[in-house]
Design goal:
By secondary structure, the protein is an all-alpha fold. It contains 14 helices and no strands. The longest helix is centred in the first third of the chain and has 41 residues, at 2-42. The termini are far apart.
Length: 349
């Protein structure tokens, strides 16, 4: 009887443990789902791009207050992770947990450098992002155009937020290199079109396949008005600010090291891209060592074939000597397979 009671008790405990394990895995998935929804709400343009059209009339809050609030949300998600029993997770979920935790922690590590105070560049910024909305925003009927218009009308506020952030960056020495910002001026000028009907934003009218003739005329007129009264003035403000106030105080050096806490920034970027606890000096020394190793190996190769000259001359010889090139497709593939075989054998050993 005691044995039966012990068995029943053991089975009960195992059932509870399995339930806890299931709960931790389920709870982790709930956190992931919550984070995905959070991302769509807070980065609505990304939601639209991903095919979720619940937020097609919203834009990302790029004010400093909005950005700092998202940092607080990141901390909250990290706090939720601490309530998960890591040991109770499945193998796959442990990997998911580790990656998610690392992503959140890196986001907070980078946030202390306030890169949001440099929101404009030749490859990023509202002057490049806003015109692309028309490419993935649904624009078939009047309701969809109204959502698009809500976003366009918000451009002025977003631009003013960028300017406010850049002004704060100027006071802290967190500014972009001048040669980059010089490239943004013609980009902004290309957006500002005195004829609204020729604006890149007016290309939305090429869509609207479900619009009636009356709706098309009304929406066309409204879009021209938004371009004239909201979009053009907003980008003119941004252009003039960059040209007259921002450019004169921009950095002359391009390197991250020229920013405040430049070495710390650089080291964090090294850690981010290598996933290793290395400094930028470690990476530099590795580069120098590898160059020396490769040059030594090249010297050995050129000497083995009796080439008289420097490594640089040997490199030129390799580039120009017809014997160094394959003339047959099959020979090329066989040579490629031979190299793969050698590397596979080296890895196996």
């Amino acid at each position: 009887m005691k044995f039966i009671i012990l068995i029943l008790a053991t089975l009960s405990i195992m059932s509870i443990e399995q339930q806890v394990i299931a709960d931790d895995n389920d709870n982790l998935q709930e956190i992931f789902s919550e984070y995905v929804e959070y991302g769509k709400r807070n980065y609505p343009e990304g939601a639209t791009y991903d095919g979720d059209h619940r937020y097609d009339d919203k834009v990302t809050d790029n004010s400093e207050a909005g950005i700092l609030a998202r940092d607080d949300s990141t901390r909250n998600f990290l706090a939720k992770l601490t309530k998960i029993n890591y040991d109770a997770l499945s193998g796959d979920n442990r990997i998911n947990y580790d990656l998610f935790k690392r992503s959140l922690e890196e986001s907070l590590e980078f946030s202390r450098f306030k890169d949001y105070l440099m929101p404009i560049g030749q490859q990023n910024g509202i002057h490049l992002g806003a015109p692309q909305l028309v490419q993935f925003q649904p624009l078939s009927n009047a309701e969809e155009f109204n959502k698009y218009f809500a976003r366009l009308r918000a451009i002025g506020t977003s631009v003013d937020n960028d300017i406010a952030n850049m002004k704060k960056g100027m006071s802290l020495g967190i500014v972009m290199p001048s040669f980059i910002m010089e490239q943004t001026l013609p980009q902004m000028e290309s957006i500002i079109n005195k004829n609204p009907g020729e604006s890149i934003f007016f290309s939305a009218m090429e869509k609207g396949k479900d619009l009636t003739p009356e709706q098309r005329e009304s929406i066309s007129n409204e879009l021209k008005e938004i371009i004239s009264q909201d979009i053009n003035p907003a980008f003119q403000r941004l252009h003039d600010f960059v040209k007259n106030e921002y450019l004169p105080v921009c950095r002359q050096e391009a390197g991250v090291w020229s920013l405040p806490d430049g070495s710390d920034r650089y080291n964090l970027l090294v850690k981010y891209f290598t996933t290793l606890d290395l400094t930028f000096n470690d990476v530099h020394q590795t580069g120098l060592s590898e160059v020396a190793r490769i040059e030594k190996e090249m010297n050995r190769i050129k000497d083995s074939i009796g080439f008289n000259g420097s490594v640089q001359e040997f490199n030129e010889f390799i580039k120009k000597d017809p014997k160094m090139f394959y003339t047959d497709k099959e020979d090329l593939m066989n040579g490629f397979r031979d190299i793969l075989g050698k590397t596979d054998r080296a890895r196996a050993s």
